[in-house]
Design brief:
Rossmann fold, six-stranded mixed sheet, 3 domains, about 600 residues
């Protein structure tokens, strides 16, 4: 059996001297559930997994999926899960200088001593952080270089591995879909593998029989001279893993309470998974299907217990479209008016403007009001029809009017630019919509509140994603996106509008990574070797590193971004069966083309 090596407390103290936010690395939080180090030493057959979140502690601890898997694994007596996050720059420098390998939070076990390292990859701009964590752990990056090493097994899951190809050179296996059930099935096989002493290929063959598990080394892609895919073998497609009944798994009522303030400092409850709206730009709306709702009675009971357990005074009811949950009014009312809880505030992300009722506004007002966030996505009705955002301007304004009448002062709007078939008039309509919101704020807010009112607007460049009807379209060029951003910023309707936006260069890299093939992995590695990491952080993202990495790897970024993809072309992610047919996506794409020929009637 392998020895479990870990960092001593005195060593940790020395490492943390002078480090900013040492709470990121000390562990010992309330709610920790992994087994004690002495228990691990006494039971060498226990399966150890480190759940790796490739971003800093404050962001990772706000991720509900991490908490869910952590709790599920640690319920088992024969399994133990610990956590590791990307160290910030100062602590990474300290680790490398002192030649100390990266270690887990709970027992400070070096991550190369675990049986499994499981990455939770929430978005593509975390890819370089994945490599950085492996390197800090003293682990070879590519699976080919680990072929003769039984442990640790390296895998990845999360929404940004639905196209598994960009990370395929680095992973022993990848998990597509819901993780609650399959993580236990995988660890059961790890347990057998650990006892048997068999070769790694035996284990990988066993897990490849499970729905949702993709093993890169078992597949080979063949390419034409122009870089397009000719075929892949075997032709077996991987069906995603699906949890049919969410109520099989209770919500996490006793999550770990972070040592330092996380990005989202509140109690989070997933009330529904999946979305039936069918927005054509939305990858999550496809990959999380089918729609599954938790039972209302269970939600009420578990939410109240969770708030009591944690001491949080804010609860967030989460789903892709939270206001589509039937019984939301009753859920909010039951939690807000519970006699044992005082001054509870409710956060409802991803609100649809057409679902925001007066009744719901009053219920939220019963607690402390947080800001309201709405996502019209596009300024013109024509553009909303094209992307299948089925909401009219009148509905939007009525809902915003209700919000102002009920006393909300914080409103945030999300827009995208660079959408398929967009023209100059669609950009102007974004500005006109801002003007209309300001007009209603001035009209319906009391004078004192209008004086301090600000409209917060987030504008992002559109990124065509795999498994959406727009997966074939060309992304808008960096120059075009910048021109549109500049036009909006130059013509904002007054000083009460605060705009945040994502750089067009970052949007292009995101698209490149999301639609990439296996050779994209070479670019990721070269970008990381040149210093790329924390690429989602505005002040750390360096586009030149990605340009140079593409040049050095002989890969064209434009091939994956600004090129229109033929509907006949084999796509890198066609190896995955996400549960929605390509024929359906093509029909939706054709509908958007037809709608693009129509002009606004107003």
């Amino acid at each position: 059996m392998r020895e479990i090596l870990y960092l001593g407390l005195s060593q940790l103290d020395k490492l943390l001297y002078g480090i900013q936010k040492p709470g990121r690395y000390i562990g010992c939080e309330i709610g920790v559930k992994s087994k004690d180090i002495e228990v691990l030493k006494s039971f060498p057959d226990m399966v150890l997994i480190v759940l790796a979140f490739p971003d800093i502690y404050e962001i990772g601890m706000s991720n509900l999926g991490l908490n869910i898997l952590y709790e599920i694994v640690n319920r088992r007596e024969d399994f133990s899960a610990e956590r590791v996050f990307s160290p910030w720059l100062d602590f990474e420098e300290r680790l490398r200088r002192e030649k100390v390998k990266l270690f887990s939070l709970e027992n400070r076990i070096f991550i190369d001593c675990f049986d499994v390292i499981g990455f939770n990859v929430q978005h593509e701009m975390l890819y370089t952080n994945v490599l950085n964590i492996l390197d800090l752990g003293g682990i070879e990056l590519c699976w080919k270089d680990r072929s003769n090493v039984r442990f640790p097994l390296v895998c990845a899951g999360g929404p940004s591995v639905v196209n598994p190809q960009p990370l395929s050179k680095f992973m022993d296996f990848m998990v597509i879909g819901d993780g609650e059930e399959i993580i236990i099935e995988i660890l059961e096989r790890v347990k057998l593998y650990k006892k048997s002493g068999r070769e790694k290929t035996w284990f990988l063959s066993e897990v490849s029989k499970l729905d949702g598990v993709y093993v890169p080394r078992f597949y080979r892609f063949y390419y034409y001279d122009d870089g397009k895919i000719e075929k892949f073998l075997p032709q077996k497609r991987i069906k995603k893993s699906v949890v049919r009944d969410l109520d099989q798994f209770e919500i996490v009522k006793s999550p770990i309470i972070p040592n330092i303030k996380p990005v989202h400092d509140r109690f989070v409850v997933e009330i529904m998974r999946g979305c039936s709206r069918g927005c054509r730009f939305c990858q999550a709306g496809i990959i999380y299907r089918p729609v599954r709702r938790r039972k209302l009675d269970y939600l009420i009971e578990q939410s109240i217990r969770g708030l009591a357990n944690t001491g949080y005074d804010e609860i967030s009811f989460m789903s892709l479209s939270v206001s589509d949950y039937k019984g939301l009014d009753e859920l909010v009312e039951s939690v807000v008016k519970n006699c044992d809880l005082e001054n509870i505030s409710v956060s409802l992300p991803s609100m649809r403007l057409d679902s925001f009722s007066i009744r719901l506004a009053e219920l939220i007002k019963a607690g402390r009001r947080t800001g309201l966030t709405f996502a019209p996505e596009a300024g013109s009705q024509r553009m909303r029809d094209i992307i299948n955002k089925d909401i009219s301007e009148d509905e939007m304004m009525e809902c915003i009017k209700v919000a102002f009448q009920k006393g909300w002062e914080k409103i945030k709007l999300y827009f995208m630019i660079g959408l398929p078939f967009e023209d100059e008039s669609d950009i102007k309509e974004i500005l006109r919509l801002m003007e209309k919101v300001l007009y209603n704020a001035r009209r319906f807010l009391p004078r004192s509140k209008w004086a301090r009112f600000n409209l917060n607007v987030s504008i992002n460049g559109f990124c065509p994603k795999p498994f959406t009807p727009f997966q074939w379209v060309a992304q808008d060029s960096v120059e075009s996106l910048r021109s549109k951003f500049d036009y909006i910023l130059t013509n904002l309707p007054g000083k009460k509008v605060n705009v945040s936006w994502t750089s067009p260069e970052k949007t292009k890299v995101e698209c490149f990574l999301s639609r990439g093939n296996e050779f994209t992995g070479d670019v990721i590695r070269k970008a990381w070797e040149s210093g790329a990491k924390f690429d989602n952080w505005t002040d750390l993202f360096d586009y030149s590193k990605w340009e140079n990495a593409c040049n050095n790897a002989g890969v064209s970024m434009d091939f994956f971004t600004t090129r229109v993809i033929s509907s006949e072309e084999i796509l890198p992610w066609d190896v995955i069966d996400i549960g929605i047919s390509k024929e359906y996506l093509l029909k939706e794409y054709e509908k958007s083309k037809e709608l693009s020929r129509k002009r606004d009637k107003v």
